[in-house]
Amino acid sequence: MRARLLAACLLAPALLLVIGILIVPLFFDLAMAARDPELRDALPRTATLLGEWDGRGLPGEAAFASTAEELSQAEQEQRIGALAQRLNFQRAGLRALLLKTARADLAPPYHETMPALDARWGDPTVWLVLREARGPLTPLYLLRALDLDLTPSGDVAPVPLDQAIFRNLFLRTLWMSVVTTLLCLLIGYPVAYTLTTLSPRWARIGIGLVLVPFWISILVRTTAWLILLQRQGPVNAALQGLGLTGGPVQLIFTRFAVYLAMVHVLLPFVVLPLYGVMRRIDPVYLRAAASLGAPGWMRFVNVYLPMTLPGVAAGALIAFMLSVGFYITPALVGGPADQMVSAFIASYANETLNWGMAAALAALLLAMTALVVGAARLVVLPMPRGVG
Amino acid sequence: MRLLPALAAALLIATPAFARDLTVIGFGGGFQDNARKDLFQAYAKESGQPVKDDVWNGEMAKVQSMVHAKDVEWDVVMVEAPELVRGCEDGLFDKMDWSIVTKAKFAPGGTSTCGAGAVGWGVALFYDQSRIAHGPANYQELWDLQKFPGKRLLRNGAKMTLEIALMADGVAKDDVYEVLATKEGQDRAFAALDRIKPQLMFWKSGAQPLQLVGSGDVAYAVGYVGRTANAVKDGGHYPLMWNTLLYSYDSWAVVKGSPNAAEGMKLIQYMTDPKPLTALAQDWAVSPATTVVANDPAVRAKNPAMVANHSDEGLFIDTEFWVEHGDDLEARFATWAAK
């Protein structure tokens, strides 16, 4: 009992730290995907009045008046930008409408003067959009992140085809991460095995060679590929010199370049756990299998491979999770058809300041990754394993 | 005796943040290196107020988080026009104090509620003349894949690329934004881009056009004129097709909640005055928004690549249009580019 209490006390600070600086902020961040505070912050009275309206026809003169007054006040106090962006995101053109109304000098009766200023104020769907934006929560961002849209009547409809990008983006991110992970495993497994067969001095040098890339900035490593894969670069020159190609081949800004650069960056993450596991495999098991008559390939498949499975799982997990979050590498060496979700998350968070979309995409990415990792564990768990 | 170290410790912890130096933020590069000498440090010398400068790449999230957290570390920033407009509406930038900054000295379009015009910038079509003797002279020719074979490089985004597509399709310069505001116009722009898509590549960072044209990876590119003009000065052969110019103005703005706001306004007034700007124009090809300097024949002669020299040939990038339609069109462009 005392030992348990002691263990709990020793764990408590680390646990509190993880919860405090990781889980809680993450939760608040992802909650932004559903929050809808802009209308209520900019036009509080209007938000309440719209809540009391039943949504049929047009709202009363009180709602029109409150909208006109609060818009004008918000514009003067420089509080209108967030609301304008939120509404323009749901329906294009509303930003111009809001600003035009805020800057105009309107007089009562507003339910006549506002539509006279701009016909859209007489359109019930515009008011329904405003009403939809009043609530503390909204499904809009999560729906848009799945290429679905909210109609004014509250139904869900697919987004027009020429703007539907996110479903493909998620599938592409998933596919590219899986391919990168598999490539890393295919290349990293023999490398790790070779390291275990070397003498201690050469093994140290080998490990050093695997670790040296960690000391070089990822940006430098990625831009190095830009120079290597240019049309007049060394790779093209070598290919032409060897007679394999007639002229310079387009290597940079292709999917091939993205896979190359990503595998280059992620390989050490796969090699090191594999090496750690392989080192502890006692060769006596392989000799026992040989003495029982197993040929080389059977020794590998039935004895060696299952014993390295924990290392494979660890390396694959790290590589997969890292590549799902990559965006700098595809952005630098890939074409427009090679971009991953994280590039859009970064763009929404940094440039357009659309935190709702950034959070929604991040939440969906987290969910997708969790699903894939969970499914992988279900597959790997029942496999026979060895010690280590 | 224990009191003394305790007191010292308490003083250290309780020390309020010292008034920091006036901080001005730009986009970096050769412009900032020269501006540091001719604008920032010249102001520091004249006013006795130390000035620090740093770099950013226009990501508004940084300014937004500073203002919301009420921990503003930047005083004066150079912003592009759409970000200026949105930041002003969002309460991220202070309204310009026209009692300190003289409004009259700016060219039309060079001032706005929260910003004072700093420099003009532009993009135009160019190619490497040492590789290609005779390249396309306008956007219609750029779209001619038979007469001018090779890869084309445009900016990876809807802004500027859609206007170019419409102009290549035959829309007159003055009508571009009117047409682009309609659904048919937008469809027309994307259809035009589809025609050259097999030979089209995109750049994300400003250094890429010059780099890729120089290395021969692309044949023709639309890139920043400032950098290209400087490359020509350093001996490159990149003829700029000035009738393909698309240009805009960057502005100086004061971040809301900055403790040095008043001093920041004075710095902006200094940085847009004729004498410091003329000195800067001698060292770096800029196109100032201050009328007197932009019209100065000596400055114009020294910098033939100044945007102001060619603005009547070019298309002014409509800020309001992009603030309103930007989100939609960029989303559509991203979808189109990914196919």
Decide which structural class fits the backbone of chain B: alpha/beta
The outline of chain B comes out as globular
- Proportion of β residues of chain B? 15-25%
Topology, number of strands of chain A: 2
Q: Helix-strand pattern of chain B, N to C?
A: HEHEHEHEEHEHHHEHEHEHHEHHHEH
What is the count of helical runs of chain A?
A: 19
Mean pLDDT of chain A: 89
State the end-to-end distance of chain A. Answer: 30 Å
Oligomer: heterodimer
| Helix and strand sequence of chain A | HHHHHHHHHEEHHHHHHHHHH
**Cα-atom Rg of chain A, whole angstroms?**
29 Å
- Major sheet summary line of chain B: 11 strands, mixed
Can you give a write-up of this model?
- Chain A has helices spanning 2-31, 38-42, 44-52, 61-76, 81-90, 94-103, 110-117, 124-132, 140-144, 166-197, 200-211, 218-228, 234-241, 255-279, 284-291, 296-325, 328-333, 341-350, 355-380; strands at 148-150, 156-158.
- The longest helix of chain A is centred in the middle third of the chain and has 32 residues, at 166-197.
- A two-stranded antiparallel ribbon of chain A has the order 1-2.
- In chain A, strand 1 and strand 2 (156-158) form a beta hairpin.
- Chain A is elongated and about 95 Å long.
- In chain A, 70% of the residues lie in helices and 2% in strands.
- In chain A, helix 3 runs antiparallel to helix 4 (61-76), helix 14 crosses helix 16 and helix 15 runs antiparallel to helix 16.
- Chain A has 388 residues and is mainly α.
- Chain A has two domains: 38-136, no CATH class; 166-387, Orthogonal Bundle (MetI-like fold), CATH 1.10.3720.10.
- Chain B has 339 residues and is an alpha/beta fold.
- Chain B is 45% helix and 18% strand.
- Chain B has 16 helices and eleven strands.
- Chain B has helices spanning 3-14, 29-47, 60-68, 81-89, 139-142, 161-168, 176-180, 183-196, 208-215, 225-233, 261-271, 274-283, 291-295, 297-302, 307-310, 319-338, and strands at residues 22-26, 51-55, 76-79, 111-112, 115-127, 152-155, 200-203, 220-224, 240-254, 287-288, 315-316.
- In chain B, strands 1, 2, 3, 4, 5, 6, 7, 8, 9, 10 and 11 form an eleven-stranded mixed sheet that branches.
- In chain B, strand 4 (111-112) and strand 5 (115-127) form a beta hairpin.
- The mean pLDDT of chain B is 87.
- The interface between A and B is large, with 39 and 36 residues.
